TrEMBL record:
Organism in which the protein naturally occurs: Cryptosporangium minutisporangium
Ranges for region Disordered: 1-25
Highest taxon of source: Bacteria
InterPro entries assigned: PaaX-like_central, PaaX-like_N, PaaX_C, PaaX_trns_reg, WH-like_DNA-bd_sf, WH_DNA-bd_sf
Location of the Transcriptional repressor PaaX-like N-terminal domain: 29-95
One Pfam assignment: PaaX_M
Protein name: PaaX family transcriptional regulator C-terminal domain-containing protein
Lineage: Bacteria, Bacillati, Actinomycetota, Actinomycetes, Cryptosporangiales
Length: 291
């Protein structure tokens, strides 16, 4: 999923739908919905999901029914979900836009090494913004940040790997920004201290904290808890890590940089939880019977 769609700003909040749940890690209902569809629906031919399933799942994650309903309604208005009435009950499925977001996110979520890029590849972007367009400047900076860019200097940004900047602007509704920016594939020349510009451009210590928090949380989990809820939380927490770390090259960071370990923990937990989570959902949808 795109970084822009996953970002829930304050003006999007409805009736407390942006409340954090769990252990204070800032899990948000919209991200939980995306994690649910990406974790247990993606790749399976399933019918639309009844509202009752979302209410039960969200309730087990500490989200009030009113907040859950507000989230579903807001995502439907934004064209991320489609509401289908079957009998007297409302059901939801991903819209084509929402499905595209989940499919795109899956490319990185399912990547064997989601924090690695071809060695030495960077994307450099510069822009010049009139002072009268401060609103555009703010939106542009937000889009670049969520696309993995870090600011080197005023008007000069850099991201690891090769980033399709035109697509980033298009997804953020910033097509006019493309005419104010230039971007290039870049490679540091001899003498450049890569370690230094990485720490100038990104909050490396906070990114490490995200990895460490994920590892501490998911190193172990209880088999007695609802596997569907656990898989949804796992996906939500993992998306948070992926959003925080654009794939900073570990060889320029501390020897014990935790990206590889957090990836291993995610893979192990996902493989352990997925079969039981799929089984639980199938039972709730009436596609399987309780053993």
């Amino acid at each position: 999923m795109t970084r822009v769609e996953l970002q829930e700003t304050e003006h999007d909040d409805v009736d407390g739908a942006n409340q954090s749940v769990g252990s204070g890690n800032g899990r948000r209902p919209q991200t939980l919905v995306f994690a649910f569809f990406g974790g247990v629906i993606h790749g399976r031919d399933l019918p639309p999901i009844p509202t009752a399933v979302f209410l039960r799942l969200f309730g087990s994650l500490g989200v009030a029914p009113a907040a859950a309903r507000a989230t579903l309604a807001r995502m439907t208005r934004r064209g991320l979900l489609e509401r289908v009435r079957i009998g007297r009950a409302a059901h939801y499925r991903l819209s084509p836009v929402g499905d595209a977001i989940v499919r795109k996110a899956a490319q990185r979520v399912e990547a064997p090494a989601p924090f690695e890029h071809p060695d030495g590849q960077w994307t450099l972007l510069s822009y010049s913004m009139p002072e009268t367009r401060r609103d555009l400047r703010h939106r542009m900076r937000a889009a670049l940040t969520w696309a993995g860019f870090g600011g080197l200097r005023d008007g000069l940004w850099i991201a690891p790997g090769l980033v399709d900047v035109g697509e980033v602007f298009a997804e953020a509704g910033l097509t006019e920004a493309a005419g104010l920016a230039d971007w290039f594939a870049a490679q540091p020349l001899p003498g450049v201290q890569v370690e230094d510009f990485i720490r100038r451009a990104w909050p490396v210590d906070r990114i490490r904290e995200e990895h460490d928090r994920f590892i501490q949380k998911w190193w172990t989990w209880s088999d007695e808890e609802d596997p569907l809820a656990q898989l949804t939380l796992l996906g939500s927490d993992w998306l948070r890590v992926l959003q925080a770390d654009p794939g900073l090259p570990a060889r320029f960071l501390a020897p014990d940089w935790p990206a590889a370990q957090s990836t291993s923990v995610y893979r192990r937990c996902h493989q352990a939880l997925l079969p039981a989570a799929e089984r639980r959902l199938d039972v709730e949808l009436g596609l399987a019977t309780v053993d």
